[in-house]
Design goal:
By secondary structure, this protein is of the alpha+beta class. It has one domain: GMP Synthetase, Chain A, domain 3, CATH 3.30.300. It is 38% helix and 18% strand. The chain has five helices and five strands, in the order αβββαβαβαα. The strands form two sheets. The chain has a three-stranded antiparallel β-sheet with strand order 1-2-3, with no helix packed on it. A two-stranded antiparallel sheet has the order 4-5. Helix 2 crosses helix 5. The protein is globular, with a radius of gyration of 21 Å. It starts with a helix and ends in a 19-residue tail after the last helix.
């Protein structure tokens, strides 16, 4: 599998060197509120659900958005480890990323405007099984952290623009 990753990324790198304009990509998601606080999101051909635990008004049928953020960070870190290790010929037997976020519900519930509604702190631990030299793995970890897109997104401010579109629903004729 690492050879496939290496070949795929090598081909992409060469293609982008030949035509840097192809490096600009966009990703899109659509999320639709369903019953209660359950949301169905669609990304490309994939559908997945969000919900909240019962204490937050949900049915606890799926992870909530902030849990997906943690999972996305862990998944991105693991993928970047595989990608870089494959390109550099570093053997990784396994990569596990444990993430934890601390959130004060007073911010989310609007009880205290001095408390942010999102995570106050996120920590992660990467557990690597490998017989490679420790120094090589530590360098790899620094490189992963430097280019992991989700780590970049959650650790540095980026511009976010929102727009509200209101659609009027025709009243039912009695």
């Amino acid at each position: 599998m690492s050879e496939f990753v290496k070949q795929s990324l090598g081909n992409l790198i060469q293609e982008l060197k030949n035509d840097p304009a192809k490096a600009q990509v966009s990703f899109e998601a659509t999320s639709v509120l369903e019953d209660g606080v359950c949301v169905k999101s669609t990304v490309r051909q994939f559908e997945f659900k969000f919900d909240e635990p019962e204490i937050l008004g949900g049915k606890d049928e799926a992870p909530n958005p902030v849990e997906y953020v943690l999972a996305s960070l862990g998944a991105c870190q693991a993928i970047v480890y595989r990608a870089l290790a494959s390109l550099k010929g570093i053997q990784l037997d396994s990569v596990t990323v444990k993430t934890k976020g601390d959130l004060d519900l007073q911010g989310f519930l609007g009880l205290d405007s001095n408390i942010r509604p999102g995570y106050e702190k996120i920590v992660f631990e990467t557990i690597i099984a490998s017989n490679e030299p420790v120094e090589k793995l530590e360098r790899l970890a620094q490189q992963v952290d430097a280019i992991c897109p989700v780590l970049d997104i959650v650790s540095k401010p980026i511009p976010v623009e929102g727009k509200l579109t209101i659609q009027r629903v025709p009243e039912l004729a009695g």
